[in-house]
Hints:
The protein has 249 residues and is α+β, with helices and mostly antiparallel strands. It has a single domain, classed as Alpha carbonic anhydrase (Carbonic Anhydrase II, Roll), CATH 3.10.200. The protein is built from five helices and 15 strands. The N terminus is likely disordered.
Amino acid sequence: MNLKMMVLALGLMAGAAGVQASDKAAPHWEYAGKAGTSHWSELDDSFSACKLGKAQSPIDIRGAKAAQLAPIEFHYAGSPAEIVNNGHTVQVNLAEGGSIKLASGDYKLLQFHFHTPSEEKINGRNYPLVAHFVHKNAAGELAVVAVLFRQGKENAALQQVFAALPGKVGDKHVLEGSFNAEAVLPAQRGYYAYMGSLTTPPCSEGVHWQVLVKESEISRQQLAAFRKLYPMNARPVQPLNGRSLEVSR
């Protein structure tokens, strides 16, 4: 299978997983206005969880209980990669990006994408950017690893991505060489853990969330390049509703 066929197959698989809602398969939604976050549940019956769900994401992470959580085992690998502007964010599809191992099992890395500001808050504070690494296991369950970014030095691992962001909705292109997502992660990988949902319609629940405690850095120029396309694409935080929220010791 050649490179273009591999990234095409990955793109189709990610779409089938329902990780990012497809404009062809579902009503148009946005982050503001009449199709904005407060109206998502009104756009389609399948979006009802956006209003009625009791385990929604993102959340304001505060008061997490310290626990003996097993370390996330990252088994990421260099992979052909395709960057896509899907109309809601910029997403990087990975044909063979590797996997993670959680206490609940193994999950294959499908893609990662960005939100500004960060959808998650830490003690009421947003970060300038977050990347969500989306994984899926053999049973179809999803697990997301969130990497927060503070403004600082240029992120060398993402230089190729931010240097050529697809400027129009539907635009896509293949990165040269292979891309290893592990290079984006901070060196320390302690994390907050809770059960939540997709942060975009249909807001499906049952998603395993791991938000890394330590952040990575991104430059002002890289952040500006993304915000030129998406000045704001973050869902507001949702009530915890008594869910367990833990942080690794």
